[in-house]
Design brief:
about 550 residues, globular
Length: about 550
């Protein structure tokens, strides 16, 4: 019997399956619960994205902001988030995934209160500086959490459920956007610009996030193994998986042994890379094959993050209220339609989760199909922007639904999967930085594009062209990661770059027996199945 702290004993007690529940059912349900709790940080990200559309427009009038000050106040959060994501590499590696998200929750809490309390004084510089300080703190929270949470969920999720559980993050983003839109719409109906209320409400879920990560969730077992804290890693596995793993007699101790074999401890094997070492074989002490494989994985990771943003999603989410006003709707109608738009994206994500689209059919088909729908909708929206308000709103809904099916969840889930353990924190930080900074560029230039000769037609047509280019590159370069454990995913990038079947291995990666389609329960459909494919790494032990 291993020696445990009181914390680990509490985890073990909490992991006991309820009476009448099999270990496999308990493992699946526990994994879903852990992923949902961890992904609460993405709810905050979504709420901030959704609330600024109308609330910042009201704030602009209330505080007397100029057009430039308004654009900077909206976009500065994304710029800071990108820098914070880079800094999260150090906290993620040194204090763990839990500690990083706790800091993010505190930043969300402080930032929300600062924005809500920005003084309305004759000294406009003071008011604006106060507002920017709050937006900077929110950006810090966004950057830290969006880098740490996908890594955490990818590391605690069973391989067969990983794509679906990572998609839950985006579902919570959209839930936050819908709730924010609903709050703004209700406040707009009251006839008063109560932006302080809608912005300040984010402090409550931020406090919930801190409590969840401090008291309810274990640390990532993979990170604990890497630190040499094997007793704590075992207790965390018990809490996450239950007493048994999968549908057989494989024990938690077997999974711990497999992780111990796959992940270097302390000075063993490749050391945890710093950001500056990612692209330099000599500094990182990687061999040529490792270096080439890592660079290919990083290029793909940054590509999909940039692709998500150049599709124009956050021009819609940040400025949908302004766009709908331009199309021809009134104030209250625009606020309610903004809420409806967010709900439409949520429907797309909900379909992806309910059908287990990323796991059942693969990441590649999900993202490429989503890109096709997004491009078609953007072209249609560009054409109808100034012609028919009703048709334009319909195409905007089609765009958001298509985006929710793949472009919304896949970039984050893919980046949580494709990097080796020794580079995961740094490479994920780099990818999150690219996402946030691309977000910043798109957001800060949108109003200028809209007012330029390009107008609505040229702006949205530009996003359609950029999305098409990104989808073609993704089709050529991306392997299928569905159904593989993390320690095996990176092996695909070490194969010959001319090996075309490697890139199109969807069928091979999904040869395992699918869940029973007759089940109407999402929880039941998530129960892990035993693998029938090649026995490698952790799969050879049945630990998925």
């Amino acid at each position: 019997e291993v020696t445990t702290t009181s914390y680990m004993q509490q985890l073990r007690v909490a992991a006991a399956p309820p009476p009448g529940t099999t270990d496999a059912e308990h493992s699946a349900r526990t994994a879903v619960g852990v992923a949902l709790a961890a992904s609460w940080a993405f709810f905050l990200f979504g709420y901030d994205t959704g609330v600024v559309s109308a609330a910042m427009a009201w704030c602009k009038g209330d505080l007397g902001l100029t057009g430039v000050e308004y654009a900077v106040a909206v976009a500065i959060t994304t710029a800071v988030a990108g820098v914070a994501a880079l800094g999260a590499r150090s906290t993620n590696a040194r204090v763990g995934r839990r500690g990083t998200v706790v800091v993010a929750g505190v930043a969300f809490f402080v930032g929300s209160l600062l924005v809500a309390s920005a003084p309305q004084t004759t000294a406009r510089t003071v008011s604006y500086a106060w507002l920017l300080a709050g937006r900077v703190a929110i950006g810090l929270g966004c950057g830290l959490s969006t880098m740490a949470v996908p890594v955490y969920v990818a590391e605690v999720a069973p391989a067969r459920l990983r794509g679906t559980l990572l998609t839950l993050e985006i579902f919570l983003v959209v839930f936050g956007q819908v709730l924010a839109g609903l709050v703004n719409a209700v406040l707009a109906s009251l006839g008063r610009p109560l932006w302080r209320v809608s912005m300040g409400l984010a402090a409550l879920p931020a406090l919930v996030l801190v409590v969840i990560f401090l008291f309810a969730l274990p640390e990532s077992p993979r990170w604990l193994v890497q630190q040499g804290r094997l007793d704590e890693a075992r207790a965390a596995l018990v809490a996450i998986r239950g007493r048994q793993i999968g549908g057989d007699d494989t024990s938690v101790d077997d999974e711990l042994a497999a992780l111990r074999d796959a992940i270097p401890i302390g000075g063993e094997g490749p050391k945890e890379l710093e950001l500056a070492e990612l692209w330099d074989n000599n500094r990182s002490q990687q061999d040529d094959d490792q270096g080439r494989a890592l660079r290919r994985a990083m290029r793909l990771g940054m590509l999909v993050m940039a692709l998500q943003q150049v599709a124009g999603i956050n021009t819609i989410m940040y400025y949908s209220y302004v766009i709908l006003l331009r199309v021809g709707f009134g104030d209250t109608a625009s606020a309610w339609l903004t809420c409806l738009c967010a709900a439409t994206q949520g429907l797309g994500v909900a379909v992806a989760v309910a059908t287990r689209l990323p796991d059942r059919y693969g990441r590649r088909p999900a993202l490429l199909g989503s890109c096709a729908g997004v491009v078609a909708s953007l072209v249609g929206f560009a054409i109808t922007f100034s012609l028919s308000p009703v048709l334009a709103v319909g195409l905007l809904g089609a765009y958001l639904f298509a985006f929710g099916l793949g472009l919304s969840p896949i970039p984050w889930s893919l980046n949580g999967e494709i990097y080796p353990m020794y580079a995961r924190s740094a490479a994920m930080a780099q990818a999150a930085f690219v996402n946030w900074e691309t977000n910043f560029v798109v957001a800060v230039t949108f109003v200028a594009l809209l007012d330029s000769p390009l107008g609505g037609f040229g702006s949205f047509l530009l996003y359609a062209i950029l999305t098409t280019i990104g989808a073609v590159v993704f089709y050529r370069e991306a392997p299928e990661t569905a159904g593989q454990v993390l320690e095996d995913v990176f092996a695909d990038f070490r194969r010959n770059g001319d090996d075309v079947p490697r890139r199109r291995r969807t069928a091979a990666a999904l040869t395992r027996k699918p869940p029973d389609s007759s089940s109407s329960s999402l929880g039941a459909s998530l129960i892990p199945q035993q693998h029938e494919g090649p026995a490698r790494g952790l799969v050879s032990r049945g630990l998925v």
